[in-house]
TrEMBL record:
<dbReference type="Pfam" id="PF01546">
    <property type="entry name" value="Peptidase_M20"/>
</dbReference>
<feature type="domain" description="Peptidase M20 dimerisation">
    <location>
        <begin position="214"/>
        <end position="303"/>
    </location>
</feature>
<dbReference type="Pfam" id="PF07687">
    <property type="entry name" value="M20_dimer"/>
</dbReference>
<protein>
    <submittedName>
        <fullName>Amidohydrolase</fullName>
    </submittedName>
</protein>
<dbReference type="InterPro" id="IPR017439">
    <property type="entry name" value="Amidohydrolase"/>
</dbReference>
<dbReference type="InterPro" id="IPR036264">
    <property type="entry name" value="Bact_exopeptidase_dim_dom"/>
</dbReference>
<dbReference type="InterPro" id="IPR017145">
    <property type="entry name" value="Aminobenzoyl-glu_utiliz_pB"/>
</dbReference>
<dbReference type="InterPro" id="IPR002933">
    <property type="entry name" value="Peptidase_M20"/>
</dbReference>
<feature type="region of interest" description="Disordered">
    <location>
        <begin position="470"/>
        <end position="495"/>
    </location>
</feature>
<keyword id="KW-0732">Signal</keyword>
<keyword id="KW-0378">Hydrolase</keyword>
<dbReference type="InterPro" id="IPR052030">
    <property type="entry name" value="Peptidase_M20/M20A_hydrolases"/>
</dbReference>
<feature type="signal peptide">
    <location>
        <begin position="1"/>
        <end position="27"/>
    </location>
</feature>
<dbReference type="InterPro" id="IPR011650">
    <property type="entry name" value="Peptidase_M20_dimer"/>
</dbReference>
Amino acid sequence: MKHSYLVRAGIGALALGFAAVSAQAQAESLSDKDTAAIIAGIDARKPQLASNARKIWEWAEVGFHEDQSSALLQQQLKAAGFRVEAGTDGIPTAFTATYGNSGPVIALLSEYDALPGLSQTDQPAEQSRGGVAGHACGHNLLGTASVEAAIALAKWLKASGTPGTVRLYGTPAEEGGFAKVYLVRDGFFKDVDAVLSWHPSSSNGASQGQLLSMVTAKFRFTGVASHAAAAPERGRSALDGVEIQNVAVNYLREHVPSDARIHYTITDGGDQPNIVPAHAESFYYVRHYDPEVVRDVFDRVVKAGEGAALATGTKFEYEIIGGSFGTLPNDTLGRVVDASLRRVGGYSYTPDQQRYADAIARTLPKGAAKDGPSAIGTYDFGRKSPASSDVGDISWVVPTASLGTATWVSGTAPHSWQAASASGTSIGVEGAEVAAKTLAISGAQLFLNPEKLREAKAELQRSQGADFKYTPLIGDRKPPLDYARSALPAGRSGQ
């Protein structure tokens, strides 16, 4: 797969810009009456959305261990008439919920995992609430809003008599476990016509951008323990292997594409200084927009580890923990979502919310705050974003579009205490409600216009290129159900 998908994506979008006007004129639009009914239905369930989001925020369960969060969302969908299958693809906290039996299949995505080490109260000051994790990426909001959108869309299908199937995938462990990639690899999206997703943000917008492809892996060295003072010559330091690999990789940075990213931590450096470490481990992320560049850079990181093992007389092995493609943006679907977002609009702060937002703004870098939650960003296609998501793999096999809504105070960075705080407040709920309405209206619009789904698929095929064959970056490994084991509460073991 030696090609540049970034170029093809742009060409595909350009071709769509000159689509036949007659086909657009024949498209059936969602009526104002139906739009109002969808919005009213989501408004009526706002207390439920707020309650669910708060519970998941308080539980703050890490990837593949979101037992309570997953069960709560499954219960909500069952009560709404969805057929729910738990443990999708052998992943305990994954699930699939389906409503309908005919017509196009439109899927929504629900995430609910928290980030290790970012426990935070809902106050506008940095203060741990005593837990081991926190929702600093807003997945408590993401999961609940997607569920509300699916329920609203199912109600509309039933009321309107429109043929169609709504499917919601409960996808755990986005923060490093990459559950969606396993579902794609194992064929769970093969009958889906379009995927609509969203993510918490500090602003409202439906631009369709390019995320980074990535591979994550743990590198393990095994040496020989010995007394570091009495018999150092007998020892072979596994920590030396880790450190020499890290030095080699840091020299490598000069000789990779400038927009490649390599990050690492030392997750095991030994126990105490007077023992030559027999075991040591580092954890690496390698990123770039093109998955082929990721494969190449990662292979070079592996070679650095092999050289470090040779230099230190240690044994070396590595385990790929996860990996995902960067997103392949779809302009056809993106414009549908953008139009729906503008139809819904943003929201305004209450006096209490404004006081909270002002307090948070004072903790942000000067000039970070920009537009408020009422503004809708200009639509942009193909802009690069320095982040990664396992939604990327889905976007390479099914037409996919996403949006962001203002669940955080303007200027807030994801994976920060400010994001964790706002995700537990009514500001987070307001932004999540905007997302739920936009997703539901977008889905209804697509069900009414099967031709739009065909256009989106044609664009995907042009962007993929004739020689494309999906080969996941995770290889054939099983889901790493214990990858976040160190972030579990005391007394709870990994699976």
